[in-house]
């Protein structure tokens, strides 16, 4: 398995997560279409938030990053959130 973490902070990040919270059903529907999807979480932080996606392989997490970028561009471009810091890597342990 492979995971990707996108950290949103700074300008527009809080507003972006306000929108994501209002549109969780849209986000869920989008992420469940990612090839090799395993799990997804949205975590609110003090200055924005962190989505975490786990997929069967790196191709899936790359697809999730692209879909997230497109969704933000189509639904939240007026918010002006800064691009996220993206961190990814192989999953060592995944508990459910």
Characterization of this structure:
This protein is α+β, with helices and mostly antiparallel strands. It has a single domain (2-90), classed as Alpha-Beta Plaits (2-Layer Sandwich). The protein contains 3 helices and 4 strands; from the N terminus they run βααββαβ. The protein has helices at 13-22, 24-31, 58-75, and strands spanning 2-7, 37-45, 48-55, 85-90. It has a 4-stranded antiparallel sheet. Strand 2 (37-45) and strand 3 (48-55) form a beta hairpin. The mean pLDDT is 95.
What class do helices, strands and sheet pairing give? Answer: alpha+beta
Task: State Rg.
Answer: 13 Å
Number of separate helices: 3
Order of helices and strands: EHHEEHE
Largest sheet: 4 strands, antiparallel
- What would CATH call the class? Alpha Beta
* Lateral strand order in the biggest sheet: 2-3-1-4
Q: Which regions are unreliable across 5 or more consecutive residues at pLDDT < 50? A: none
Give the structure's gist in a few sentences.
By secondary structure, the chain is α+β, with helices and mostly antiparallel strands.
